[in-house]
Design goal:
Length: about 475
Amino acid sequence: MAKVKALFRCAACGHQVPKWVGRCPDCGEWGSIEEGLPPVAASGAASVAPRSPAVRITEIDANAAGAVPTGIGELDRVLGRGVVPGSVILLAGEPGVGKSTLLLEAVKHWAHAGRTALYVTGEESAGQVRLRAERTDAVHENIYLAAETDLATILGHVEQVRPTLLIVDSVQTVVATGTDGVSGGVTQIRASTTALVSLAKNSGVAVILVGHVTKDGNVAGPRSLEHLVDVVLSFEGDRHSSLRLIRGIKNRFGASDEVGCFEQRADGIHEVVDPSGIFVHQHDSAVAGSVNLVAMDGRRAMVGEIQALLHKTQANMPRRAASGLDSARMSMMLAVAAKHSNMPTYDQEVYVSTVGGMKVTEPAADLAIFLALKSSFTDKPIPHGTVAIGEVGLTGEIRRVSSTARRVAEAKRLGFTHAVIPAGTDEDMPSGIRVSKVSDLSEAHRAASFASVPKSPHQDLGDAPF
């Protein structure tokens, strides 16, 4: 009888190697190579009678998987109307960003709606979670706490409590008895997640898993973890800012490019319905070097402000610094401005920054960066109420960008009265706001500099024509 040769397969990416190695040569994951038998040919497989017969798709109740709102509008926005029963959601983020605080807030609203929630913590004691719940006013009799790391015990708690929402904080701390590997390892995470996914699909319990991230911001554990769950959310935030953003990376029940905004406070985390006020500074009068823009973060349009400062220096190599912006695009704007707008900056220090910790990387901010640099260079302010939207090419032309109408509508909603956009834009613009279409830098500077603005940009203008 021929000897059966074992195969070695990477648990993270599925790559096969002829012998065991410590690191997968394909994905670079350490300790993910596992030994297994070769797959059985399909011709040798025998059919098995199904436990439940297949039914027509027209006979399935569409309301059985309807989303249940969490009570947090910004979270429901990213999830797509709420939590779907039987779904598994993975919420990943850096330590201290506020993942547990956000989930306690969601559990509070869930319990106040008359539903039962089970919060399983593997990183804290039940007393520690209770203290944080008191600080954020998240104490309710429909909330059950359990400090467990054993997977079988967690499943036993679910059978006793019978919740409609299960939160596991975090999946890296869960240990599946009988599975090889250490806690937090590739094998343990995959086994624990598979069991929790099976629990959700069979019982209809919605499961939210808290996940850790690596140094480069990816979800810790096997790559298959993101394939097993239904929704993957990324919770981001700067330690020096109270603003928190939750982004949808994967969503089987809605859009995967939505963004929710929150603010971290001493009494918990609060949703920010209109984040544009954080990113726009309230000036008493127009100042040189300040220009407003409308950036798209996923499907969300947010008004921000870019400030530029140019200062003459005697240094041989003037300093250039950018905060919240791509430094490469700032350098490109300096070169384009020097070439096509008679704005040499070889003897000046250049500082460009966004307001409120906003991060803008899209090319649609090019025109606002240029106008801020030009305004600071000439020491002439751009009037209040003007927003600039457009990409600047290396030849000095203004190129159109996506979702221009949505950006202009957001600017109008916040009371801005003038929008400078690319000339090639063919979208229908909203009424009640003056729109200047420009094709090059000189036209853009003239249109932005001589705009007459009758009101403050933060007053409601309605639909009055201009």
